[in-house]
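User: For a benchmark we're assembling, each entry needs the component sequences followed by a predicted structure for the full assembly. Here are entry 17's components. Please fill in the structure.
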Amino acid sequence: MSIAITTQIICFTVLSLVIIIGALGVVLLESIVYSAFLLGGVFMSVAGLYLLLNASFVAAAQVLVYVGAVNVLIIFAIMLVNKKEDLKPINDIKSRRIISTSICLTLLSLLIRVDLTNVWSLSSPQNSIGEESTIRIGEHLFSDYLLPFEVASVLLLMAMIGAIVLARRDVMSKDISTGLPVDQELIEKSSEPLLTNKN
Amino acid sequence: MMSLESIPIQAFLIVSSALFCIGIWGLLNSRNAVRVLMSIELMLNAVNINLMAFSSYVDNNLIQGQVFTIFVITVAAAEAAVGLAILLSLYRNRVTVDMESFNLLKW
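Assistant: Structure for entry 17:
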């Protein structure tokens, strides 16, 4: 690492503050659109933390996949389902809030205690490979992590097909190119909304 | 105060712990289903920060943690796509995104 330690600490502090405050905004803000854009800011700051840890490839992947794909997908979903609705009040909302907040604070204090009291056996920074990490990741992906790499490709294919099947809506009765009737077994039938008037 | 050579690993771990707990809080308390998915993404990012910190401080020669982070990012992208597709399908059937009204599995 060639950056001076003071610069590192300043960068780390700013990025951490953006992450924590942004994450609080994501879960606490009323408007879901603001939450989505704050989520993009949190993802960018996490990529900055990766750069501080000498991992430029993972930082680039974080920006491409999270900010470029996941966040855009979330914003599209908000656009599709964004209907103003008055939520039904819940009776025991206050006790729920108290219980969940206390659980989260307990977990946080437990984790921070473990972080601070455990003695980590850190390796010497002289071994750091720094800028060669991209080469090393490629070597890993095509040697000892080859099977997970291939399984990940199958997983992405399954997710793509599953998302298409789940989200598609309008079904044509005839195939456009061949004119044959379409096999509709996998396809959701157009129907009345289920159970909308139940309670 | 002694002068530091680098940022202590505890700082990264505390940030990731806080992010994880915020994610859990959002997961438990959100009523909008999209916000629940966002909270899950926050938790996955907290895990990624942990993996990257340990990869850099403990295993900085083999960096297997970075490979794991790549896989977690892949799985998170697939999870977001399928989750949002399920959400659209639910919205089509119930015409709401309120988590309290999704009681189709209740008997």
